[in-house]
């Protein structure tokens, strides 16, 4: 029996539902000696902005029990340099290519989107959920009107690319933000980005991070992220205001092994992203791809849709 692990999201075919999450996989090449990168379903780039960014000063990563705090601050070479220097090699790796787009304001997002629209990336993931930058980022993802305005602008600037919007778990009313994005032209949603959190260095008597707040990821957030995917699936399926019918959801947050990934797929996610786990265990995604296949084969399942319990 053969198991078909492929999935099509907003018209883009992935050979399996496992995608490297933004900011945790560089531009793909960095991991080429550690795992068979070509076996992945997709690779999502680090958050890209039109203009290059140096990122945040000071400590950028701090481990917590079952979690990871980060405050990278969207360090990236800028979209023009990405397209010229990183994209050709990334493209050759094989997996579907998702460009994670960020910006300080609507204008920067829009100009970045226009450049990506004319490039060979397969899909744009609009990041309205980065908690580690002072302007833009999560500010757009907390409130439905701001999220819709930005989604509309990016949709208009990149009419040819499938558009995922990456949601913030810090939004007080996540379903309303999600609905607003879909009505403004999003083809799918990805969630969750990191939870705003902090740590204090008691020896120094001051916060670990210069910005004080940082984003929490890893196993500590998984049950909450899973609950958010479950609830969002329900809200989008049943809400008549969301006129487009079913919207693909890409789930993430603390996925570290096959069982975690299966939970998200069962909760209604069409695909999953794996982030922090790759730092501890670079082979995690490959094991997860094999594990999903083995689970389905044992149960006589032929395609991924059979996994959903929704
Ligand atoms: C070091 C680090 C950098 C990240 N950078 C980005 C980024 O640039 N853009 C983005 O949308 N998410 C970024 N994220 C969030 C991840 O893509 C993911 O949403 C989050 O970490 C939850 O998944 P995980 O628990 O599997 O890591 C970053 C996460 C980490 C740990």
Quick gist of this model?
With 310 residues, this protein is α/β, with parallel strands linked by helices.
Descriptive report:
This protein has one domain: Aldolase class I (TIM Barrel). The chain is 31% helix and 19% strand. It has eight helices and 16 strands. The longest helix is centred in the C-terminal third of the chain and has 17 residues, at 222-238. It is globular, with a radius of gyration of 18 Å. The structure holds flavin mononucleotide. The site of flavin mononucleotide has 27 residues, from strand 6.
CATH class: Alpha Beta
Gross morphology is globular
Helical coverage, percent range: 25-40%
Overall residue-averaged pLDDT value: 95
Tell me the number of structural domains.
1
CATH architecture descriptor text: Alpha-Beta Barrel
Keywords:
binds flavin mononucleotide, 16 strands, alpha/beta, TIM Barrel, 4-stranded antiparallel sheet
């Amino acid at each position: 029996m053969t198991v078909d692990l492929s999935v099509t999201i907003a018209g883009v075919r992935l050979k399996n539902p496992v995608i490297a999450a933004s900011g945790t996989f560089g531009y793909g090449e960095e991991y080429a000696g550690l795992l068979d990168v070509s076996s992945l379903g997709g690779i999502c780039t680090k958050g890209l902005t039109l203009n290059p960014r140096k990122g945040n000063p000071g400590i950028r990563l701090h481990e917590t029990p079952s979690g990871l705090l980060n405050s990278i601050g969207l360090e990236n070479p800028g979209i023009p340099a990405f397209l010229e220097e990183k994209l050709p090699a990334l493209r050759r790796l094989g997996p579907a290519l998702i460009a994670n787009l960020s910006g300080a304001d609507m204008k920067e997002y829009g100009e970045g989107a226009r450049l990506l629209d004319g490039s060979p990336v397969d899909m744009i993931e609009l990041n309205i959920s980065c908690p580690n930058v002072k302007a833009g980022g999560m500010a757009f993802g907390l409130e439905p009107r701001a999220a819709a305005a930005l989604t509309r602008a990016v949709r208009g600037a990149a009419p040819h690319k499938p558009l995922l919007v990456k949601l913030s778990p810090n939004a007080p009313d996540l379903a309303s933000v999600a609905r607003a994005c879909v009505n403004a032209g999003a083809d799918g949603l990805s969630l969750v980005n990191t939870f705003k959190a902090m740590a204090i260095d008691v020896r120094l008597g001051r916060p670990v991070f210069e910005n004080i707040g940082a984003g929490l990821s890893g196993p500590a957030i998984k049950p909450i992220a899973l609950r958010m995917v479950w609830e969002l699936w329900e809200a989008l399926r049943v809400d008549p205001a969301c006129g487009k019918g079913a919207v693909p959801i890409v789930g993430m947050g603390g996925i570290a092994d096959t069982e975690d990934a299966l939970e998200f797929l069962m909760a209604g996610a069409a695909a999953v992203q794996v982030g922090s786990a790759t730092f501890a265990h670079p082979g995690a995604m490959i094991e997860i791809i094999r594990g999903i296949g083995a689970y389905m084969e044992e149960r006589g399942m032929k395609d991924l849709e059979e996994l959903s319990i929704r």
